[in-house]
Amino acid sequence: MGRLDGKVAFITGAARGQGRSHALRMAQEGADIIGVDIAEQISTVPYAMATQEDLDETVRQVEALDRRIVARKVDVRDGEALRAAVDEGVAELGRLDIVAANAGIFSSGAAEELTEEQWGDMIEVNLSGVWRTCKVAIPHLRAAGGGSIIITSSTAGLNGFPNFAHYVSAKHGVVGLMRTLALELAPDMIRVNSVHPTSVDTDMIQNETMYELFAPDLEPQQRTREALGERFTTLNALPIPWVEAVDISNAVLFLASDEARYITGVTLPVDAGQTTK
Amino acid sequence: MAGRVEGKVAFVTGAARGQGRSHALRLAEEGADIIAVDLCDHIPNVGYPSATEDDLAETVRQVEALDRRIVARKADVRDRDAMKAVIDEGVAQFGKLDVVVANAGIVVIAAWDDTSVEIWDQTISTNLTGVWNTIQLTAPHLIAAGGGSMILTSSAAGIKGLPFISAYVAAKHGVVGLMRAYATELAEHSIRVNTLHPTGVNTPMADPSTMAAYGPLLEAHPRVAAMMTNLLPIEMTEPRDQSNAVLFLASDEARYVTSMEFTVDAGNTQY
Asked: What is the pLDDT of residues B18-68, one digit of tens each?
């Protein structure tokens, strides 16, 4: 018996990386999935974002697990499109129990050098997008008699980091949103928690921009995965460079399941001890 | 399907009943063998009935009914020699140790001015020093195993103050400091250390005698009585709710989760 048998989960940023991993991990445990992804580039994002092909691949892999999935190309900056996707998903799959507000972007720059556009995109996607995701999902969770919302924050939602003030601000912001929603939704037995990954081995960190940020002293050709791994390891307490997407998914799965039925308002770090340093 | 802690060995203190037994059973259901201790005796000033040797024997029976192995001994977490003997015996029998659940604890309800030196000492020695004994004595075995997971039972009262249990609040906050210190020092050995923070749990510790002691104090001090409120509309959690969190932290699903205060508190600390 799966740990999420009979439940339906709504996941943003589901085309690849952590979002796809969440979809697959939850599907393995019996959940049907409503998945959205922008599947397009945002101009201020310095790495290649997910594509429609990536989203199709998530669909293929969920269906290979014999679970159902409703996938739509939706930008979390578009509240109406988000609402339509969730409503359609619930109409087809019958209910909604779980929300994984995972969609997010990364870019970098010293605070005084960030452009209005960089700042605006970051807050719109990583903070306001999470609010919109919750907003359109809450009526369905309430209709189901309760549920679990898991917001993807970051170690940068608990600590400051130089050179991405907009990301740190957005990721701190979702903690405030999480705490408030936990208060507002508790009477409806809707739980709200955040997860705080350290670096995760996905395209968001394995790219030239991130390598330059973490190893500006190295020549571009020296900025290998191995060399960067050593830099990333210094951030963590446990002797590892980064975690795998499935490590975050296992935490999301636990919070989504009835095993966590009385856990709400928690900031759950999956950070190899980074925030304790 | 393999259990979520298949092949692991777990040491659980306070395992005769309540949360400790529940942890032992939940871990055993998912494939772990168990080393268990319990005081099985009364501590002065504790208002609720203490666990007995019969309770511990029942834990043994239930673990064995799950087809798992268990070494269970009567031992006081305050007694380092006795603790070391049990840990060494269990590890000798099962070959290793992967998971430590420092669960044993007591609570004595008393306003600040009724908290005697004896109440203070026995609470600190059981709930704080007992946890230190547990993890200091087991750490070498986890290092030898190449890593592991320690789960220290704190409380909502380890994050915020709660009224009329000042020694308990101090000890449970102390456990958080201990957790952070050990998480820091043991990270290089891939040992994870986290705390569990329950709200009220439906166990003998929440016996009517405990509530009878609390009632008049809370009535006399209604402003702080509200601090006991859970955010979710429930009175109490079940032991299994706590055990599910212990299981997650014990398993490889949480292999990169360390130095965390894990609340299973129905939002009590957020209220």
From this structure: 999 999 999 999 999 999 999 999 999 999 999 999 999 999 999 999 999
Question: What superfamily would CATH give domain A8-200+244-270?
Answer: NAD(P)-binding Rossmann-like Domain (3.40.50.720)
Q: Where are the domains of chain B?
A: 9-253
The dihedral over CA atoms of A106, A112, A113, A117, expressed in degrees to the nearest 10, equals 60
pTM, 2 dp: 0.90
Position A121 scores a pLDDT of: 98
Residues of A with CB under 8 A from a CB of B: 179, 182-183, 186-187, 189, 191, 198, 237-240, 243, 247, 250-251, 253-254, 259-266, 268-273, 275-277
**Which residue of B lies nearest to A275 if distances are taken between CA atoms?**
B259
0.85 surpassed by complex ipTM: no
What are the tens digits of pLDDT across the range B199-217?
999 999 888 888 888 889 9
**Least CB–CB distance from A276: residue in B190, B254, B259:** B259
CB A226 within 8 A of CB A184: no
pLDDT at position B1 over 80: no
Which band of pLDDT confidence, cut at 50, 70 and 90, is reported for residue A209? confident
Size of chain B, expressed as the number of residues it contains: 271
**What are the residue boundaries of the structural domains of chain A, listed by start?**
8-200+244-270, 206-241
Active site residue B48: no
Q: Considering only the beta carbons, identify the residue of A239, A251, A265 that sits closest to B190.
A: A239
* 3-state DSSP assignment of residue B5: coil
- Choose from A238, A243, A257 for mutation: most chain B CBs within 10 A: A238
In eight-state DSSP terms, residue A49 is P
CA separation for the pair A154, A178 (Å, rounded): 13
H-type helices in chain A, by residue range?
A: 17-28, 52-64, 79-93, 116-122, 129-143, 165-185, 208-214, 225-235, 245-256
List chain A residues with CB under 8 Å of B143. none
Q: With contacts defined as CB-CB under 8 Å, which chain A residues touch B266?
A: 262, 264
Q: Any CB–CB contact under 8 A between B77 and chain A?
A: no
CA dist list (Å): B206 to A47, B85, B238: 55, 31, 11
What residues in A contact B253, CB-CB < 8 Å? 247, 250-251, 253-254
Do residue B258 and residue A237 have CB atoms under 8 angstroms apart? yes
In which residue are the tokens 């409120």 written? Answer: B229
CATH code for the structural domain at B9-253:
3.40.50.720
pLDDT at A115 over 80: yes
Those residues with Cβ within 8 angstroms of residue B141's Cβ, 6 or more apart along the chain or in another chain: B87, B91, B96, B97
Note the pLDDT of residue B206. Answer: 87
